[in-house]
Write a sequence for this structure.
């Protein structure tokens, strides 16, 4: 029989009732078992702990700036969640973000990662959250959207991010042309409201208890699922009721994580499978994106 005290001490997910804080729910642990089939969990935990303890001598000043930014963002992450209001939760989040910064020193920490990592930590231990992050990071090549271009002509934009936002615009035009026309008429820039969605991989807008399903589908279907979610969400917005600055305000309010907006994202998740996207077309376009000009070039 499950003790009621055990249930009450759980401030993370309730995927499996009775788990104490920091225990891993089974579906969360299964994700890294599928990804790292030949690795033992104990070895993955040890590798994480070694990385956390590793001293940084190269790029020291840059690393110190990263630590300061992480500290600032800890208190901005899921401020309504009990787990992340606790010292234990904030310490766990900080540790994983530090490991991510060390994992790829040229990239470091980018704002938005805090929401994605927090959504993963909601389901278990630090090392499991870290390796699940790495799994998505490598599967979807997230470095591409986080890393600033070294090409001067691009003016330090994020070319990978630009590529995916332009793909959303293109898919919106081909699937929901009246919506795209309304955005063009009102000079709505997709990047102005899409960027936080990409940098957090939608973790900042979904109810935290529902994000694991999103995460699993991202691992399974990649960017196609991500595009479907955004198109499904935009399709269900009442954008035609607004024009000009009011339209801009209406759309950007979706990034404020209010309950009503989270419900819209849940509805988008339910309807995403109804969005038809030509996978071959999308992959072909992504393969022919020119980072120097930031445009799709058909070769």
């Amino acid at each position: 029989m499950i003790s009621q005290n055990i249930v009450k001490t759980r401030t993370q997910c309730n995927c499996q009732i009775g788990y104490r804080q920091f225990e891993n729910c089974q579906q969360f642990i299964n994700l890294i078992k599928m990804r790292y089939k030949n690795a033992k969990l104990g070895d993955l935990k040890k590798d994480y702990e070694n990385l956390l303890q590793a001293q940084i001598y190269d790029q020291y000043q840059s690393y110190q700036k990263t630590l300061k930014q992480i500290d600032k963002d800890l208190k901005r992450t899921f401020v309504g969640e009990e787990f992340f209001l606790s010292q234990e939760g904030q310490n766990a989040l900080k540790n994983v973000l530090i490991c991510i910064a060390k994992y790829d020193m040229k990239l470091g920490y980018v704002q938005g990662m805090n929401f994605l990592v927090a959504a993963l930590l909601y389901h278990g231990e630090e090392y499991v959250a870290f390796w699940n992050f790495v799994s998505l990071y490598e599967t979807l090549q997230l470095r591409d959207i986080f890393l600033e271009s070294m090409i001067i002509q691009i003016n330090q934009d994020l070319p990978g991010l630009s590529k995916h936002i332009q793909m959303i615009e293109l898919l919106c035009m081909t699937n929901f042309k009246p919506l795209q026309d309304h955005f063009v008429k009102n000079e709505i820039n997709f990047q102005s409201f899409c960027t936080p969605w990409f940098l957090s991989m939608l973790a900042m807008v979904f109810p935290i208890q529902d994000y694991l399903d999103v995460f699993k589908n991202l691992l399974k279907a990649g960017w196609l699922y991500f595009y479907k979610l955004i198109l499904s969400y935009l399709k269900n917005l009442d954008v035609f009721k607004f024009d000009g600055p009011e339209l801009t305000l209406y759309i950007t309010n979706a990034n404020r994580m209010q309950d009503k907006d989270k419900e819209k994202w849940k509805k988008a998740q339910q309807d995403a499978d109804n969005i038809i996207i030509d996978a071959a077309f999308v992959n072909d376009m992504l393969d022919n994106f020119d980072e120097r000009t930031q445009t799709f070039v058909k070769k």
The first helix runs from residue 4 to 9. Residues 23 and 132 are 15 Å apart (CA to CA). DSSP finds 17 helices and two strands in the chain.
